[in-house]
């Protein structure tokens, strides 16, 4: 049986951080309760990342690393998808940096040679 990856607790922490960003950077975001698209996108992405990481701890497998990798790439693109702007803000930098860390950590686990079976000849 597979064991949980070393990156799973880190991904839970990053998901919690992303979820909390609208409240940690209140001047950058609008109020999520008033319908700010970017704040809601950060909240939902953080929640999804945390839930996938917890699921990876409970039911370990390569699937969760691949989903976390996709969430990291999504999070890096999120500021331009949710609310396109030409001027980078603190939220933009946070999304790019945290999304990059998420993609690298999960990508190492998802696409490393560990866990791949050698070809039978």
UniProtKB/TrEMBL annotation:
Organism: Rhizobium mesoamericanum STM3625
Transmembrane segments: 40-59, 94-113
Domain SPW repeat-containing integral membrane: 6-106
Keywords: Membrane, Transmembrane, Transmembrane helix
Protein name from the UniProt record: SPW repeat-containing integral membrane domain-containing protein
One Pfam family it belongs to: SPW
